Amino acid sequence: MNWISRIEKLPRSASVTYRCNPPVVDEELAFLAAALEVRLPEELRQLYLLTDGLAEELQGIGTTGYLVLPAQVLLHENQRLRQTACYCVHDLLLVAPAYTGDYYGYLIADDGSVSTDIYIWSCTDNTRVRVAASLAEFLVSWVSSELTA
């Protein structure tokens, strides 16, 4: 199933919709990967080639957050949190805020490869708990309120 089909099948309510943005170009993805010293997971890379993040919009309000951060926001947030002395997130590629201070992301191996599983990182105790086997599974679980962690 391609990303367009996956996004179209995300559970929605009368007041919540999901907005795609113009796609990210390969050069920007290469810059992002180099700046963060990772190999982007293919699933995330394919999503960015379709849409620069996935916004959640509330009817009458507009964008209220992101299910997947836009590429430049992802870069900024990962760099900012990696430079903060009290956080140890160098082994994570954070892709979505949990809106509690925590983030969802992929684990990064020493060689820069990234897992396909999605974890939630707790900013209060620096733990990582696996919540989904893939980005697609994570998105469906999150928007249907079935995410456990």
UniProtKB/TrEMBL annotation:
It comes from the Bacteria. Pfam families: SMI1_KNR4 (PF09346). InterPro entries: Knr4/Smi1-like_dom, Knr4/Smi1-like_sf. Residues 24-139 form the Knr4/Smi1-like domain. SUPFAM superfamilies: SMI1/KNR4-like. This is Knr4/Smi1-like domain-containing protein. It comes from Solirubrum puertoriconensis.
